[in-house]
Design brief:
Pfam families: Cys_Met_Meta_PP (PF01053)
Strand content: 5-15%
Radius of gyration: 22 Å
Strand order of the largest sheet: 1-7-6-5-4-2-3
GO molecular function: cystathionine gamma-lyase activity; pyridoxal phosphate binding
Shape: globular
Cofactor: pyridoxal 5'-phosphate
Number of domains: 2
Bound molecules: pyridoxal-5'-phosphate
CATH class of the largest domain: Alpha Beta
Largest sheet: 7 strands, mixed
Structural class: alpha/beta
Distance between the termini: 34 Å
Protein name: cystathionine gamma-lyase
Keywords: Amino-acid biosynthesis, Cysteine biosynthesis, Lyase, Pyridoxal phosphate
Amino acid sequence: MAGSDSSGFPGFGTDTIHVGQDPNQWKSGAVIPPISLSTTFKQTGPGEYPGRGGNPTRDCLEKCFAAVEGGKFALAFSSGLGATMSICHLLKSGDHIVAMDDLYGGTNRYFRRILANMGVETTFADATSIEKFSAAMRPNTKLVWIETPTNPLLRLVDIPAVVAVARKQKDVLVVVDNTFATPYFQRPLDLGADISMSSATKYINGHGDVVMGLTAMNDEALYKRLHFTLYAGGACPSAFDCYLVNRGMKTLHVRMKEHFRNAMAVANHLKTHPRVETVIYPGLPEHPHHELYKRQMKGFSGMVTFKLKGNLENATKFLQTIKVFTLAESLGGFESLVDHPALMTHASVPPEQRKELGIDDTLLRLSVGLEDTKDIIEDLDQALAAAVSLSSFINTL
Ligand SMILES: *Cc1c(COP(=O)(O)O)cnc(C)c1O
């Protein structure tokens, strides 16, 4: 399949397995980083802290994550939204945000329903158009928040182009939510972003058993400021979760190659399927941003969005019939999941905005997992056959 033999950044697997995890750093020589559950650490004198003052298990994970994002520093948070909140704590009342209009529903909800009440206004703009994005910038814009590929429509934003617009003003932070692509396929810091942020709950942990957020950056002053909002705001992950994410990350490169291969197979299968209206996958040559994809990314994850023919009834029937895929929110684990964005993940996005974006009743978002390709495709076929009667379309022609 086209593109499916592509691999991520060189040295990626070696970094995830070794960086921050040198067995010489603890007395036992343990090859697997120990879980340090202690919530307090002995001081050598009053106010004299051993090490960096963090938790050793979290330190391991942060060092490793910085390396895989190609950054100098990283910070771990209690959730993706905890990371978002802590980044937004760098702002003050009167500041303005420009955010991509097609965003993770929870980020959209946080900007609209929490930050807006605290005097920080957000303009949602279609950052796939640099003109529209530039027009949304204001003199008091202090943060630019983009997601690429977007959720759930998998549109791509040109990161260097957005960074260039932001740099025309002073002190504008550019944050890229890299959750869907993962650092295996896309490195926002290399493309000029200030912070690469991920919900580690998804691909990075990849096993559906941890909620966590991770950020990476190059600027030391920014790292210190964000460390302060983490420390002072309290969105800190547990040592046990840091251990699990570190463990999950060791196979990130292996999993991402397989997610990519399975997703390409699904996208190629659905694109000619008589019961399917459209398929959206950046790896398909017909995707509207495929050229940008080739420039900016080294492949893509298991996220495939499609519209089946018919209406909500057909979509509901499909979701009731599908077996290998589980009807559930979230994404990025080894198991295949299917989401109905309009009724589930994006229900909190105002209906007018959903309509404008094209998040309608027949739009479904797949998180293609690591099951056998043949089983995944056969399952999609049987559910489509049960949900969409071809004759009903022939009759209406
Ligand atoms: C899930 C998700 C988040 C939020 O992360 P949590 O860890 O669930 O808080 C942010 N951005 C994207 C793209 C996500 O998919």
